Amino acid sequence: MLLLDLSGLGYLVFGTEAGRSPTRTQWILALLAFATALLLHRRRVANLLVQSALLIAASVLVQDQMINEVGTSWALLELTMATPRPLVSACGAGLVAAIHLAAGYLHDPDRWGTPIFSALVVVGLPVLLGLVIRTTRELGRQAEAKAEAERQQRESESRAARADERSAIARELHDVVAHHVASMVLRVGVARHVLPDADPRVTDVFDDVHRTGTAALADLRKLVAVLRDPTVRTDAALTAIEPAALPAALAAAVSTAEQAGLTVDYVIDDEAASIDAVRGMAVLRLTQEALTNVAKHAGPSAHARLTVQVENGDVLWSVTDDGGGIVPALPSGGGHGLTGMRERVEVLGGSLTAGPSAGGWQVSTTLPATVPTPPSVPTPPPGAASPPVPTPSPAAGSSPAAGSRPGGGPSSGAPVPGPGDAG
Prior knowledge:
Layout: H1 2-14, H2 24-39, H3 44-61, H4 66-82, H5 86-107, H6 113-194, H7 200-228, H8 246-259, E1 263-268, H9 277-297, E2 303-311, E3 314-321, H10 337-347, E4 351-357, E5 360-367, E6 399-400, E7 417-418
Parallel strand pairs: 1-2
Antiparallel strand pairs: 2-3, 3-5, 4-5, 6-7
Helix pairs in contact: 1-2, 2-3, 2-4, 3-4, 3-5, 4-5, 4-6, 5-6, 6-7, 8-9, 9-10
InterPro entries: HATPase_C_sf, HATPase_dom, Sensor_HK_TwoCompSys, Sig_transdc_His_kin_sub3_dim/P
Organism: Couchioplanes caeruleus subsp. caeruleus
Keywords: ATP-binding, Kinase, Membrane, Nucleotide-binding, Phosphoprotein, Transferase, Transmembrane, Transmembrane helix, Two-component regulatory system
């Protein structure tokens, strides 16, 4: 718009029709046309009406109406581009054409050809160009809307598929895994009552297995609820822990590992109590998993060291063992603990490293200060609910954190229970 106004000023300053200098009236009409185009840029109907009135005045008062003709054509172009109503554009085009024909008749009543051709050019070109631009924009908007609709449909289908998978996993956990764990816990409880005079060491083992199994059932029940709750996020941090409770929970995990025979030194930064709930739960699960792996692969008599530090808001976590002890005999199995640890960390934007270290093994990670926000989870399909997992009556304890590392054993073996479920 400014460029058009500057072009009009240049026309007035450097040349007009027949080389005549612009008159004062021509300058006034031109400046009014420039000001109207700027002030009424978004009020297109009003702009066209004012420009048409100025063109009528120019046709009566001055010989050269070029500036006002261009202003009227530009206003008609903007109106045609913007309005979705063809009747408005047609009325505007008819108004401008009528003014041109009337002005031509006023100047030379005997020559109708020139006014008609001028009207076709001054009116037809803006209308045609405006229709082309408006149609192109409309097609672009339709293409964007179609692409957005397709994207939303793909996301909806993906969310529905994830919801189906979550429901299927929940059913398997409830109907298969929870059933077998509940059966084992109940059988251990029966064994405690059948053998009341057993060796105290055997009784302690029974009690530990019973506590661990009971806690595992409670965690399974929570996990099934999480999988079936459409409001729960789909990241690895399915549950959270109060920040102030994290140091005590880590100490409890260490204590449970020591009960299994490990020697654990730990350094927990005082600022660990300020870690947010999501990363705090990740740190707790990583600790339980890593100490379980130490017991499984380095033996229950191994020595481990846990370090949790907070620097610039980032959480630095590591567990190192000396590799000592006798590796217990383990049944064959898959072992997905390290993979689960890495996935849990990557969801929170961190990275996990694991490998040999000074004759033993080290697992470490850095969790960034900012936790990414995951997408919401859709509502699972109807009919996915099922009865809650049965929980036996004995006292609750802590659950095992099972997993493995490369070159180690499977995911089953001597558990090291800790607060919450295994990662």
